[in-house]
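Subject: Sanity check before I submit

Could someone independently write out the structure tokens for this chain? I want to compare against mine line by line before I put it in a report. The sequence has 111 residues.
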Amino acid sequence: VQLVESGGGLVQPGGSLRLSCVVSGDIPSGYVMGWFRQAPGKVREFVAGIDWNFDNTHYAEPVLGRFTISRDNAKRTLFLQMNSLKPEDTAVYHCNLANYWGQGTQVTVSS
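---
Independent answer below. Compare away.
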């Protein structure tokens, strides 16, 4: 399994970004796919998760109401729509499936 993220960048506070994570290889059943983030000097933290075969979603409290996780099974792609971005959202965002991780994509929120 390989996970490749894209869509990060520099955005002003209040702006939006959409992250994508393309999955190659066999997707294990019964796992939740998710997004995590790691800011400089901080531990990696959970952001959002979604069941690959169902619509159950889960969000960390700091992003609730601002971020939306979704997936396109046919395109084997996981998305993270991020709205109303704040400077504290600045981090490297990683896609996760079971014990597989993507390399990450940098999101910087700054004026």
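---
OP: Matches mine. For the report I'm noting this point. Residues 5 and 21 are 4 Å apart (CA to CA).
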